[in-house]
């Protein structure tokens, strides 16, 4: 995990076991980490690949939830 990804995950855990209500969006990630859209999207996709997040939805409606399994 890079520093931005850690920052986003820590913020999700700080929100409680369910993470963000309705899931983390790329826009939320951009606000938390201060990154542009492309970087936020890449970071989120990488966290899914690493098994830290579970995506739901498609395109701009994609939301990410903590993978607590």
Write the layout of secondary structure elements.
Layout: H1 3-14, H2 26-33, H3 37-49, E1 53-56, E2 63-66
Antiparallel strand pairs: 1-2
Helix pairs in contact: 2-3
Quick structural gist:
It is built from three helices and two strands, in the order αααββ.
How would you describe this protein?
Strands 1-2 form a two-stranded antiparallel sheet. The chain has 69 residues and is mainly alpha-helical. It is globular. Helix content is 48%, strand content 12%. Helix 2 crosses helix 3. The two termini are 18 Å apart. The model has no long low-confidence stretch (mean pLDDT 92). It has a single domain, classed as Winged helix-like DNA-binding domain superfamily/Winged helix DNA-binding domain (Arc Repressor Mutant, subunit A, Orthogonal Bundle). It has 3 helices and 2 strands, in the order αααββ.
Average pLDDT: 92
Which class best fits the helix and strand makeup? mainly alpha
Q: Residue ranges: pLDDT <50 for 5 or more in a row? A: none
CATH topology: Arc Repressor Mutant, subunit A
Q: State which percent range the strand residues make up.
A: 5-15%
What's the CATH class label? Mainly Alpha
Overall geometry: globular
Number of strands: 2
> What's the structural domain tally?
1
Q: What count of helical segments does DSSP give?
A: 3
Largest beta sheet: strand ordering:
1-2
| CATH architecture title | Orthogonal Bundle
| Terminal-residue CA separation | 18 Å
Give me some keywords for this one.
Arc Repressor Mutant, subunit A; 69 residues; mainly alpha; 3 helices
């Amino acid at each position: 995990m890079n520093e931005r990804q850690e920052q986003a995950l820590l913020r999700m855990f700080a929100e409680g076991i369910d993470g963000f209500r309705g899931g983390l969006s790329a826009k939320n990630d951009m606000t938390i980490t201060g990154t542009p859209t492309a970087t936020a999207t890449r970071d989120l996709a990488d966290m899914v690949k690493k098994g830290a997040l579970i995506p739901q939805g498609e395109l701009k409606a994609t939301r990410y939830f903590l993978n607590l399994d």
